[in-house]
């Protein structure tokens, strides 16, 4: 593989043009001091992207889009809910528990509507640009707010930008959209939005609902009566590390995409699967997260004519994990992958210390060399909990797609 700074321009894959959606104002999505969803993680990611020269790399365009308007937000969210967000934002001392606002997870803040609509606007614009052929790939790492429901905030998420991007693709004429979510938490809001829509396949690989919010995402959740097989879920037991996570992904996702034949791939790359994440219990490294980004990229080219929209998501190790994981995502989508052994730029390390008084990681790797046993080649081990989970997911959804578990 050619890494950033090594690959001659003549050898670069020109099919990997990228629109990177960014607006400094997205950092106003800030629940306040002490909340895990610290917008510093977004700023530090963009600074690391810039420090590696990705914003000026060939084929990369940095764009900002306007906030999503009410008609766009209404593709997923109710008018009553949108008004409730505005009302609570106007007076953050109030709460609206019926709409999940001002709760223990979703604190009220003054920019709640404007910043949320701005993040949503970036993902919707990314969908439009990819569908219209302006770019094959688009990334909005500020997005990925996958828990928001049609009529309520949930799990730090106010407006569900991945669902809105998918809804916009359908409005533009897409007939098959695949959504793959590798956040440690189940992608429940996106699944709910398209539960009974056969045009959308939602796939979520996440920590087991018995040990983590939102306590959904069982393998038996496979879609509504008018869309059987439109949802696939693979819950993993706490403590699953790189090899198990990668084995699970490759045992489920490629075959489903091959059968579904999506016209567009939308992915969510929450970095909270990491072993250092304070809110969850998987044991994944940045190296495996980078490998999943590479796999999403390859799958988009193999099954979706290269059309790929990638978002961020969760991730609460603000300095050590999120910026590196999402910079690798941007670099991969741009066709300019970063050598995992590369040192983080000194200017970025100084910025990390200035903002947080923490020491930044020195390299773009955790020093892991992830590998996994291929499920098809190695076979099923009935005594292995991971393989039991994989087989349960395949048995639940594969028959709906004409596949053998």
From TrEMBL:
Histone deacetylase domain sequence ranges: 35-332
Keywords noted in UniProt: Acetoin catabolism
InterPro entries named among the record's database cross-references: AcuC, HDACs, His_deacetylse_dom, His_deacetylse_dom_sf, Ureohydrolase_dom_sf
Any matching Pfam family: Hist_deacetyl
Family: Belongs to the histone deacetylase family.
Coiled coil regions in record: none
This protein's pathway: Ketone degradation; acetoin degradation
Protein name: Acetoin utilization protein AcuC
Keyword RNA-binding part of the UniProt annotation: no
